[in-house]
Amino acid sequence: MCHICAGRESILRFTMEDSIEVILQDYGKVLPTTKPHPVLSACVGSLLTGLYGLWSLFSLPGFRKIPMNLKVPYLPSSKVQTLNIMQLLEGRTGRLADLGSGDGRLVFAASSAGFQCTGFEINSILVAYARNKASWNGVPPSQATFVKKDFWKTDLSRYNNVTAFLAPGVMEVLGEKLLKELPDDARVIACRFPFPNWPQQSCVGSGLDLTFAYDMSTVRSHLSKRQDTSTVILNSTEPSRHSSVFMDQKLTKL
Length: 254
Hints:
- The structure is a single chain.
- It contains seven helices and seven strands; from the N terminus they run αααβαβαββαβββα.
- Strand 2 (116-121), helix 5 and strand 3 form a beta-alpha-beta unit.
- It starts with a helix and ends with a helix.
- Strands 3-2-1-4-5-7-6 form a seven-stranded mixed sheet.
- The protein is an alpha/beta fold.
- The chain has helices at residues 2-30, 38-64, 79-88, 105-112, 124-136, 171-181, 216-253; strands at 95-99, 116-121, 144-148, 161-164, 187-191, 202-204, 211-215.
């Protein structure tokens, strides 16, 4: 039990550190500095300590509600990954759900291309950061909305575009959920980690920036054919199995 708790604290600590890193990246763009200032460093340190305390108070209860095997630490997508996703979404329109939207960088990119986007995120700090950034940049809620909500417990049937940068251990479970809920005309984009047994419509990038596109109609057709083939093979082996049993019975009688 102690090992499990330690693992959870480790995940949460890394998530907080990633959140702070995102905020500091934008802070560095606004207030560039060539050398550290002791007073400023002390103030920033105190602020981050306070933020960590608030984050632990308000974010941990929601994070604990998610089963351990479905938790994914926050890892922001790179600029190349974002460009790859947008390339795979070319020519498409409609509603887009970003599963684990983090600081909102993909939602902002997709909304600027005309998509009506919803970013699902359970980290309170990242949700607040993305909302404030949207407000500051004048992005209306009709184009980009950020919700502190568990997408595992949300019906995604209203979306015809879904993007996900999660972890390999959850892709199979996510695939089962999307197969049940998404319409046939939906496209799913997966960053870095592909869906097992799903046929790729296309892919771009290489290495850590590899990005995959899947069309739900093609995926369902492929999986249905595989199931039919498996059924035929299973049925074809039944007679030989029965014949073998029959021969064994005859030999026993002899």
